[in-house]
Structures are given as structure tokens and as C-alpha cells.
Write a structure and sequence with these properties.
Elements (H helix, E strand, L loop, with lengths): L4 E3 L1 H30 L8 H24 L4 E3 L12 E7 L8 E5 L12 E3 L4 H6 L7 E5 L5 E11 L2
Parallel strand pairs: 1-2, 4-5
Antiparallel strand pairs: 3-4, 3-7, 6-7
Helix pairs in contact: 1-2
Length: 164
């Protein structure tokens, strides 16, 4: 299977640390909460028990997602080059055709998990129509892409920065 998730080194390290934390400390804490709630008696009407079981379910779900992301067959760690071209892990400033440069928008090109790394920026997926059109393009280039509504849109790349 080809790698489907592109992570910057910082995000990969954060996801790895989160997985380790949830599978060690997290599981122990939830198990302790469940055990303490069991000691309170009748499980059918025990709010603490049900809350702890819900927490356990959400945590185990997140662990499964992280294991999928971190499977070596499912991801690649990218370190964008500082050569002015758009690739996963770069911050791109674009302006739509017909708009003034003052209407420019700035995005991080990358996986949605990158959001936690730089919450001030919205994410453009490299797999989206715009992300695919931007990939490999340089500052000053015009790119076209088909919007979901079927229209063809053009954007100009004003600036490309490495997400440091």
C-alpha cells in the first residue's frame, strides 16, 4: 500500500508521543476510573462507570486512528525544501484571480493532523484539487484547479514558506 499520509517531522513526533501517552498513562488512568466506579455499586445506574467507559471508548478509538497513521505503510515524513516550491509542510500565500493582493489567503499544505501544530492556519490537503494544483509550483506561478462546483478557478502563489 502506498503512503497516504504526509506528516512534518514535528507532527510525526507529536503523534508518536500522543500514541505512547495514550497506550501507557491513558489506559492506566481509565482502568483506575472504571475500577473506582465499579466499587460504587450498581453498574446500571452508575454515571461514573458509564462516563469512564465512554472515555475508554473514545481513547481506544483515537489509539486506533494513531496506529493507522503511524503504520510505516500508511505515512511518510516530509521535510519541505526551502526552495520556494509548494509541497506538504509548506505555508502558501495565494490570491484568487480577480482579487487584490490584499485579499490574499494563507494556508498550511498538509494533513489535517498538522492543524494542532499551527492552529492559526487553515489546512489545504495535498490530495484536494487545490492542493494537487499547487504541488510543485513556485512563487509567482498561476495554477488552475476544478472547484467542487465544477468551475475552474485560478490562483497566484504570492509566497511559499517552510513551516518551521
Amino acid at each position: 500500500m502506498a503512503a497516504t499520509h504526509h506528516f512534518t517531522p514535528r507532527t510525526h513526533a507529536r503523534l508518536t508521543a500522543e500514541h505512547y501517552d495514550l497506550t501507557t498513562r491513558g489506559r492506566i488512568e481509565v482502568a483506575d476510573k472504571i475500577e473506582a466506579a465499579r466499587l460504587l455499586g450498581d453498574l446500571k445506574e452508575n454515571g461514573d462507570y458509564h462516563a469512564a467507559k465512554d472515555e475508554q471508548g473514545h481513547m481506544e478509538s483515537r489509539i486506533r486512528v494513531l496506529e493507522h497513521y503511524l503504520d510505516p505503510d500508511n505515512h511518510v515524513v516530509v521535510s519541505p525544501a526551502d526552495d520556494g516550491t509548494v509541497c506538504p509542510g509548506t505555508i502558501v500565500t495565494i490570491v484568487y484571480e480577480g482579487d487584490a493582493d490584499s485579499d490574499a489567503e494563507q494556508y498550511l499544505v498538509g494533513h489535517p493532523e498538522e492543524k494542532a501544530s499551527d492552529s492559526a492556519l487553515d489546512i489545504i490537503s495535498p490530495e484536494s484539487p487545490l492542493g494537487k494544483a499547487l504541488d510543485g509550483s513556485a512563487e509567482g506561478a498561476w495554477v488552475e484547479f476544478a472547484a467542487p462546483n465544477g468551475r475552474t478557478l485560478r490562483v497566484r502563489i504570492l509566497k511559499v514558506d517552510v513551516n518551521a
